[in-house]
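Render this sequence as a predicted structure.
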Amino acid sequence: MDVIPALSLAGDILAVAEFTIALFSASEEKDLTSVLESLKKLRLAVDNSRYELQQVLLARSSPSLDDEHALLRLSVSSLGDSAQLVRAIEYLPEEFSGNESQPWNTDIRVWIETKFEGRVSLEDVKRLSHAATRHASSIINYRISELNKTIESLEDVKRYSRPEQESRVDSISRDMENLELEVQQRSANLDTDDSVAFTKTDIRLFSDRLANLIEAEDNMFADRIVASLNYASRPVRHDSVPQAHKNTFEWAFDSRLSKWFSSGSGTFWVSGKPGSGKSTFMKFIAKHARTKDLLASWAGSPDKLAVAVHFFWIAGTPIQKSWQGLLQSLLFDVCHKHPSVVSLISPSRWAAAKAGRWQDAAEPWSVSELTAALRALASATNMPLKMCFFIDGLDEYNSNHAELCKVLCDMADSPHIKLCLSSRPWAVFERSFGGENQERLDIHEVTRNDIRQFVSDQLQAHPRWAIDESETTASEKSGLIEQIVAKADGVFLWAFFVTRSLGEGLSKGDGTKDLSQRLGKLPTDLEQLFKHMLESVDPANYIKMAGILQAAAHALEPLHIDLYWQLEREFEEREYAYRCPIGAGTLEQVARQREQTSCSINEKTKGLLKLVDLRMEFLHRTVKDFVLTKDMGEYLRSKLPDDYNGFISIATAYLGFLKTTCQDTSLVAGIMRHGKGLNSGQFISHLNQALIYASEALKAPNYYQQTTTLLDRYESAVEAMVRARHVTMRGVNSEDCHPALPFREELLRHNLTPYIRNKLREQPDFFSIFDESPLFAALTPMSLNNGESPAPVTGTLEILLQRGEDPNVLPRVRAPGLFEEASPWVMFARGTMSVFNILSGPLMFPALRWNESLNNAIFDLLMSHGANPNQPLLDRPGAHTVFSHFLKISASRFLGEECFDVYLRTLDAFFRAGASLGVPPPNAVTDLNAWAAFGNLARSRPEESVLASYCAELKGLMTRLAADPGRARFLSSVTEKIILNSSNKEEDLERLSSAVTENFPQHVAGPLLRLVDSELEMCKKRRGAQKRHRESWGDGPYSNVKQVKREER
C-alpha cells in the first residue's frame, strides 16, 4: 500500500502549524509581505497534497486506513484556520497598513490574537499538529508492520536464496527496526504538556527512509519473479563464444551500425557465411561500452536503456535453441537490471508476491505467458525504458524460422524496442530482414583488415617468425599474410585453422617459402579444410580420432573429459572397462590424466574439439555440421572396427568411469534409496546417462548382443562396487537390500524392453530381489544431472502388468515422509501432473514426461489394468483424486496446444474406467489427526462435486478464450465429453449450462448449450418413461402379485 501521499499531507499540515506557532511565538519582527506569501504557499501545498491523497484513495482497490481519512479531515481544519489568518493579515486596520513593507510586530500579533479569540488559539494549532503527528506515526507503523509480514513470509524461502539475497533481507529488517524505534520514541507521550510534535522535516526524513524500505521490498518481489525467468544454461553459449581479437571489429563504430545504435529503429541484421565470426562480433558489440553510450543517446539517458542478449545454440540444451529460451533470456536481462518493469510484464505474479504467495509468483512460466509479458513490454504506453535486443544465431533456432522472423518483425515495430540480429544468409532471413529499406551488414565483406590483424599477430607471436628480418623476407611474409587474407574470403574460422597450421610449420623449422607451399596445399573450402586436417593425423591414431569424433557427435550433451580417457583406453585395450579394477585414483593422478587426455584429443582431432568446464565441445557449429555430414560419417566409420557403435562406446566408457571414480560426497552418498523404487545420487545420475546410451544402441538390431553383454557387465559391476563399498548406499532398506537392486530398478525406467524380456526368460525370478512391486520403479522418474526424466516405457509396463502386477498396490516398506502410502499408480499420476503444481520446481514447458505420458497412452494402459481413476492423490482429507486433478489441468494455461488431442483421448479413457464427476468419498485416512491436503493436491472446495469444481475453473476464462480460439475449441471438447457423461443428472447439466453461458465466447457456447438442452430433454423422457413404468407396474396384471407380497410382509 502506498502511504507516502498521506505522509506528505501530514508533513504539509505540520508545516502550516509550525509556521503559525512560530509566527505568534517569535519576538523578532518579520516582513509582513513575506509572511503572507509564505503562508499562502504552505496552504497551497496542503491543498495539493490533500487532492493527491483523495485521488490515491479513490483509485485504490484495497480499503483505506482510518488515519488517512483523519488526515483529510485535519487538512480541512488546517486550511480553514490558515485561511482566517490570511484574511486577517490581508485586511489589517489602517493604522497597521500604511506601508507595504510593514513589519510583523507585537502590535499586529496582539491584534490578530484578539481577532481570533474564541475561534482559533495557539493551543488549537498545537493540538492539530499533535493529531497529525499521531496519524503520521500510526501510518508509518502500519506500513512497517506490512513490511514485517513480507520479511516473515520470506523466512520459509530464505534458506533457498543466494547469500546476497539473505543479506539484503537482514539489512531491510535492521533498517525497519531502527525506523520503528525512532518513530516510537519521537511520538511517545504526545498528550503531555512537554511533548513535541513532528516537524515537516521529520516527516520528510521518515518518508524518505520508508520509501527506501518500500523500494527495497519491491526489489525483493521483483527478484523472486525474475529468478523464475533464469535457467542454468542461459549464459553458457555466450560465455563459450571466443572474445574478439584485440583491435578487431572497431570499425563497427564508424559504420551504419553505429548510427543505427544512436538513432535507428526496427532491425539491424548481421549476415555472414559460416565461420565468419558472427557470434564473436555479436558478443563484442553487445557488451562494448561505446555501444552502451550510443544506445543511451537513443534512449535519452543510461538509466532509460535496457539491453538484453540471447545466443541460440543448436548443439546445446533444448531451451538454448527454443522460443522459450529466447523469451526467458530477454525478459530476464531486462527485468534483472530494471526491476521496476516487473509489475508491468506480469501483474498477476506481482500481486501474488505482494500478497506473500511466493510460490505463485515464482512458478514456471508458460510460453503463452512469456509471450504476453514480452508483448506488454512492446505495447506499454507508459514504458520508462528503451530496449535493444541482441539475438545471435537465428539459424540455430530449432523450429519454424519464418514464424520466428514474423514475431521479431512485430516486436521491432514497437517504438521502444529495436533488434540487432545475426544469422547465416538464408533466404528466410533475407526476406524478413534484408529488404531495401532495412539495415544490414554482411560481415564477411568487411573483416578483411580484422583477419589481417589476427593473422599477423598470431604469426608474429611465434618465436621463429622474426628470426629472418631481411627486406626480402619481410616482403615475402607480407605477401604470405595477404594470401591468407585473400583465401579466407571473410571466414575467420578458416584463417584461424590455417594460421595454426602455419605455426606448426614454423615449429618444424619451415621458412617463408615453405609456409607458402604449405598454404597452397590447404583447401579454401572450410569443410574440405577440416577433412584435410584430419587426414594429417598420424595413421596410427586414426581409430582414436574417429572414435573421439563419433562420440562427440553421438553425445546427447558434451561429455566429461574423464569419459574420453575411458574411450581412449577402450581403443587401446578392448573391454578395458570390463576388466579394470574398482577404485578411484588420487587427485594428482586425476589431474595428470585430464591434462594428458586434453592434449591427446587436441592432437588427434587437430583442435576441432575444445575443453569447456571439463567437457569436450565442438569448436564451432560448422565443425559439428561437418562431422554429421553423410560423407564424413562414412569416412569416420571406415577408420573404425566393423562392430563399432558410438552409443555402446559411450555407455562402455561410463562403466569404466563409474568403476574408477568416487561418486560419494561428504554430504550425500552415491546411491540414496528413497523407497518405492526411487533412487538418487551422483552414481545413479551417471548410471542413468549410461543406460540412455545403451537404450539408443538397442534400437539397432545388429548391436543387440553387444548391448546385452554390456548390461550384464553393468549389473555385475554395480553389485561388486556396492559390496566393495566403492559406492555408498544409504536410505530406505539400504542395509538389507540386494546390492544389484538399484541397477535393476533403474533398468526398468529405460527403453530396454527386449533386454528385460530376455532376462525374464532366462531368470523367471528376476524380480525376486525387489523389496517392492517393480511397478514402483517403472513408474517413477529417473534421477538425472540435467534435463527432465522421460515418460515410463510402455513395453516394460505391459510386461509387468501382464505378469499380474497391480497398479493400486500399496508399498510393503514404510518410508519416512508425506507420501508413504501411495500406490505406483498414484505416484505416477502425482509426479507426472506435478508439472502443473505450484509446489513443483522450475520445470520447462512443454514438459517432456507429461507430454510423452499422454502421447504413449500411459494413463490409458494403467487404467485398462485396473488403476483407479478416483483414487485420492494424498492420504489426507480434501485431497484431489487422480481424475479431479487431471480434469483441473484442462483449464491450465500451461497445457500446450500439442497436448490437446491426446488429452481428449486420455479423458475418454478416464470415463471408460469409471471416473466420477460426483463428490469424492471421504478418504479412509488411517491417522485421525492427519493434516488436510495441501497445495495443488488439495481441492479448494472438498465438499463439492468434481463437476462443480470444473465449472468453477471456467470462471474468468472468457477473455482468454476469446483471444485464443484453439484453446476455446479444446475446452469446448472437454466440456462436451463432460456433458455426455453427466446425462443422467439434470442438476449437473443445468450447472454446466450456466458455466458455458457465462464463460465461453458465444460462438463456442451455442453448440454446447444445444447439446445440454438435448441431454436434458433425454433426461426428462427417461424420467417420464420410468414414471409410466412404475404406474403400469402398479395397475397391470401383476399388481395382485405385488399386493400378495405386501400382505405377506
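Summary. The radius of gyration is 38 Å. The CA atoms of residues 749 and 778 lie 5 Å apart.
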